[in-house]
């Protein structure tokens, strides 16, 4: 699944610098998380049409509301904010619904359900990948994860010079038009137009839209805080705790191999070869 309107994340970070690490980590991890999910309905058939929802970053300190067009395999960000702003936005959306439907009647109901649990089906343990390592503190730890196919590094090819949107105004006009027709259905002229616009939007956002820098040590530090782990819980490295503290403070660069082990231990889905938002 693809993602557009990432300019809303860039704009939010510009106004709220404290949101930079969690939002950019989420954005960088997004294509790899999506590659692990499928877009199938309860019968195993590909989803079609449009829907909406929201993604939470980390432990839910920030939220990204979106619309999704399954036929184009694309999410469109429509709103970004923190938990407090999310409640305000939900209230605004509810008031807008009442405004659009002035004769609507709201009721609060209580429902009691009886749930019948079917007998358990035979369960087969999934194939697991295990990673056993010595921690900086000297302990032995093992990470187990369901085995999955490798995911290629996310990359949107740049268009030849002179093709695509040449400036921000053209991009914003294209994004505005794509937003207008985002719910277009296959077989319509609007859907064909949308299929033309989406690659141009993705190319501009991935190559020309400006984002702040995100360092690997910030991703690791953020995930440690989320899991309430200590730096000494990470895989042992030469120099031990002193070196890891230098890394987490941004004073020391570590090899991709070592950082990759940290990502694996912390279930960070980003390949170290992905250099988006890097210097």
Question: How would you describe what is shown here?
Answer:
The chain is an alpha+beta fold. It folds into two domains: 2-100 and 155-207, no CATH class; 128-152 and 213-265, no CATH class. It is 38% helix and 15% strand. It contains eight helices and six strands. The strands form two sheets. The protein has a four-stranded mixed sheet with strand order 1-4-3-2. A two-stranded antiparallel sheet has the order 5-6. β5 and β6 (140-146) form a beta hairpin. α4 runs antiparallel to α5. The model has no long low-confidence stretch (mean pLDDT 90).
Key traits:
279 residues; alpha+beta; four-stranded mixed beta sheet; two-stranded antiparallel sheet; 8 helices; 15% strand; globular
Please tally the helical runs, counting DSSP H or I stretches of 4 or more residues.
8
Rg measurement, Å: 22 Å
Report the uncertain regions: none
Q: Largest beta sheet: what is the strand line-up?
A: 1-4-3-2
Order of helices and strands: EHHEEEHEEHHHHH
Distance between the termini: 26 Å
* Strand fraction: 15-25%
Mean pLDDT: 90
**SSE class:** alpha+beta
- The tally of domains stands at 2
Shape: globular
What level of helicity do the residues show? Answer: 25-40%
Sheet having the most strands: 4 strands, mixed
Task: State the total count of DSSP E strands.
Answer: 6
